[in-house]
Automatic annotation (TrEMBL):
The name this protein goes by in its record: Response regulator transcription factor
Source organism: Gordonia desulfuricans
GO biological process, one term: regulation of DNA-templated transcription
Keyword Transcription in annotation: yes
Domain spans labelled HTH luxR-type: 150-215
SMART domains, per the entry: HTH_LUXR (SM00421), REC (SM00448)
Biological classification of the source: Bacteria, Bacillati, Actinomycetota, Actinomycetes, Mycobacteriales
Length: 217
């Protein structure tokens, strides 16, 4: 069965290009498009999709607000945000509200397909280097939420999970965390999975924001 995908972008050329690119990909089906976030919400409510490719800067309702609304509603789809700027503040904010990854609009076609299929399989579309850059923006950007709320959320973690959360919030890769904490990579992956579940997080940037707001980095 093909995954149903909606393309949301205010530029009709971008929408047409993505439809052309993805239209013949096995397992992917472009079933809807929208020119702004509000139209995307209305479309998803009428006919839910599994994946949304979401532009960030749009009129009426931008991609951040639309992503937040989709992720907090019924039948939340996976969301990959599209941007022309590498690791900008819009991307951080979109990931903070639950986006599953992001792609630059000039990403090679094969990598776009790989990212989409990866997210549909539960793997965030975020490279370690880009994640590290985004996390640096979080750490350098000052308070992004409530300290008490962040500390309360992190209290659900075990001591080892907290160590892993702090390490990944500094932009460390799984291999680097494993080496620093004398763990296997498989064990690190298991800890990260537990951290995401306990913190109701979908990506490392969300974890980094909580760790930062709790004053642990």
């Amino acid at each position: 069965m093909s995954a149903r995908i909606m393309i949301v972008d205010d530029d009709p050329l971008v929408r047409s290009g993505l439809k052309l690119l993805l239209g013949g990909t096995p397992g992917l089906q472009i079933v809807a498009e929208a020119a702004d976030g509000r139209a995307a919400l209305e479309t998803h409510t009428a006919e839910p999709v599994e994946m949304v490719l979401m532009d960030l800067r749009m009129p009426v309702m931008d991609g951040i607000a639309a992503t937040a609304a989709l992720k907090s509603g019924e039948n939340p789809p996976a969301v990959i945000v599209l941007t022309t700027f590498d690791a900008d503040d819009y991307v951080v904010r979109a990931l903070a509200v639950g986006a599953d990854g992001f792609l630059l609009k000039d990403t090679p076609p094969g990598e776009i397909v790989d990212a989409i299929t990866g997210v549909l399989d539960g793997r965030p579309a975020l490279s370690p280097s880009i994640t590290a850059a985004l996390i640096r923006q979080v750490v350098d950007g000052g308070d992004t939420g409530g300290t008490a709320a962040a500390q309360d959320a992190l209290s659900a973690l075990t001591d080892r999970e907290r160590d892993v959360a702090i390490a990944l919030s500094r932009g460390a890769s799984n291999a680097e965390i494993a080496a620093d904490l004398h763990l296997s990579v498989a064990t690190v992956k298991a800890h990260i999975s537990h951290i995401f579940t306990k913190l109701d997080a979908t990506n490392r940037v969300q974890v980094a924001i909580l760790v930062h707001d709790a004053g642990l980095v």
